[in-house]
């Protein structure tokens, strides 16, 4: 009854120093019920100064073996979160441990306190997300918040951290690019692929905004391209590099080199064929097309049939556009005539005849180039339907 009365009256610590001292003594009582009640009452009347003195006892109480004591400490934490949030947030490890308790009541109160933590976080997330959206259209209006944004890069909530870094990328100026890239190096290793994709897209936009910084930004993309990651993440990086090559002429040579390095160890067939196709279109137009031949032919030797066939087409494009390389390309294509896959052999045979002018009478160099680099005159859906009909009719005729 005394505990209940003190709790309801809620006198301040300065007014009842003797009561406060008695409650602190009861917190160490051998009777668990006294300990639990003392914690509940004491947390109602102490100020922030006294709270720091008993914080260690409260953290120990949260993981106490007695569920009544643990529950009392957790409920007190929910109350203290309104008055001393900076202290209570330091108890997160103990609260996480309490969630694993066998006592249902302790689990419930621990989850309730964690929810309160997440809710202080929800407000921050909403604010950062709003600033991120504003930065997309009015970056100068958000620039004043950049200092605070930088402090959020290390936030444990990776959604908040991702929004913070992408906002900085949107609002940063040309002089801040190198500093941001240094911060990004450690950041990328701590987030999931879905967040990494958002960051990659922001870096691509930043590079298009400041094209003179293409070298450092392209190097960063190349470094993360060689790290672990899933298909969607790697595709986002490859697509970004391709866009930068197309939009920033000075970035072509270094960008193609990074893509060539990537396909040496690429585990995704789609990305390898995409890069080979792009390399066949852009590589012959560079200052030294011959340096790409080694990377392309390596694919013929080391990869699966789909990638090998794509590599053969890429070699043919180099042979069609670079006369100095044509004899060398003929040698490589002739080697492909002994490949174990039908499509690889068929492509090699066709391209040898095309480049040698034997496909049709009167065929011009322009016809060969149009065939290699042009698009189909009919939709792929129509072509597929015609082939299916042909196969069906052929099967019926056999019967």
TrEMBL record:
What's the protein called, per UniProt? Uncharacterized protein
Q: Which organism is it from?
A: Avena sativa
